[in-house]
Write a structure and sequence with these properties.
Structural class: alpha+beta
Radius of gyration: 22 Å
Distance between the termini: 62 Å
Number of strands: 19
Number of helices: 9
Strand order of the largest sheet: 8-9-12-13-11-10
């Protein structure tokens, strides 16, 4: 009971208190972590645990933010449309951040092109996708791209990366990656949404398919799971992935539904009466099928490894990830030219905050003009 009372007090002060009280509560909230250690890594019950140092500054900024916006956020309002303090951000646009999910594409897609075994290729595609998830556990959020913003880069194997923000509200980013010598092609879109799931956790999801085509024309598609971030204000901050990643080999009729935190599907009462020890929350499992035939089983953890019928296809720190390199002479709309990103990279948070808010206000004004023009054209066409 005392734990719930303490958490309620956090949000009361966030909305009603003075700046001095906010700082005091930010310090106290760090002292009531249910916590094991200050270092980040795997949490005892599963998921990725952020370190104390990573969340300290963010908690203070979040409390100030909650004081400013009041109770409106606790109605499930989409957080993407809310202006947040730059102290919660990393100096990257989402267009650059989205490339994290292809961190292992050059390695695994090269291996996939080298084998003619259709089933083996499918395993490599899944290994690439799961390995890349581990790269997404970044404490700070990226900047929302503005409409028409672009990003250009390349991987070390010569692959060219292109991304563009194609919708402002809802925010949607389209992208494509052209592998060297036509070895592979990746394309799709990312529509990101996030909302509070109660007063101390957040649910986020990047929707949209990720499509892959290999050199011989074989096509694959898969989606990303949704994430749950717990401990926004108090307690241990842990990120967990949940839901199902649906992998499909369109060319060869192979499919695998990979479940994240599969034991959660049974709910609280099933786990209460089950004698079986519950698996860690970062567990993943599934079966690859061709029609009704089961070809192999998949087991592992999105934090550490992936196995297909007991054979290891990915182990953390054993496969080198690829990091995008910025290209020379990009379009003037490239995100590297954003004033708020430039200021934040240099450590000037005040200038970054003002530039961010000015850009967001300009976007809202332009959106209003587009809506008014659309209404005007509809009336003229009647």
């Amino acid at each position: 009971f005392s734990c719930f009372a303490k958490r309620k007090e956090v949000f009361r002060i966030a909305i009603m208190s003075t700046d001095d009280e906010i700082e005091k509560m930010a310090r106290e909230s760090l002292d009531i972590r249910d916590d094991d250690a200050a270092a980040g890594g795997e949490a005892v019950s599963g998921g990725f645990k952020y370190s104390k140092e990573e969340v300290k500054e963010q908690r203070k900024a979040t409390l100030e933010f909650l004081k400013r916006v009041g109770k409106s956020l606790f109605t499930g309002k989409d957080l993407v449309s809310v202006s947040m303090p730059v102290t919660l951000f990393e100096p990257r646009s989402f267009l650059e951040r989205v490339t994290d999910v292809w961190s292992f594409a050059p390695h695994y897609l090269r291996l996939a092109n080298e084998t003619g075994d259709k089933v083996e290729r499918f395993k490599l595609i899944m290994a690439m996708a799961i390995a890349s998830l581990r790269q997404t556990v970044i404490a700070r959020k990226p900047f929302n791209p503005i409409l028409g913003e672009t990003f250009e880069a390349s991987f070390e194997d010569g692959a060219q990366i292109f991304a563009e923000q194609t919708s402002h509200h809802p925010p949607v980013s389209h992208y494509e990656v052209d592998g060297p010598n036509g070895d592979y092609h990746i394309d799709g879109y990312a529509a990101w949404s996030a909302s509070l799931k109660g007063p101390n956790s957040l649910k986020g999801h990047q929707t949209g398919p990720i499509n892959i085509r290999l050199r011989d024309g074989t096509e694959y598609t898969y989606n990303l799971p949704y994430l749950v971030l717990q401990g926004i204000m108090v307690g241990t901050r842990v990120l967990q992935y949940e839901g199902v990643m649906k992998f499909r080999d369109i060319s060869n009729n192979l499919e695998c539904d990979l479940a994240f935190n599969p034991d959660k599907a049974g709910g609280f009462f099933k786990s209460l009466f089950s004698r079986k020890k519950r698996a860690p929350a970062d567990t993943i499992s599934g079966e690859c099928k061709r029609g009704e035939e089961t070809l192999f089983e998949v087991q592992g953890s999105w934090l550490s490894h992936l196995e297909c019928n007991g054979k290891r296809y990915w182990t953390i720190d054993e496969v080198k990830k690829s990091t995008p390199t910025l290209v020379d002479n990009p379009l003037p709309s490239d995100c590297r030219y954003r004033e708020d990103l430039i200021a934040l990279k240099s450590g000037d948070q005040k200038t970054a905050q003002k530039a961010k808010e000015d850009m967001e206000n300009k976007q809202r004004f332009e959106r209003k003009l587009r809506k008014e023009h659309s209404k005007k054209m509809k009336k003229q066409n009647k």
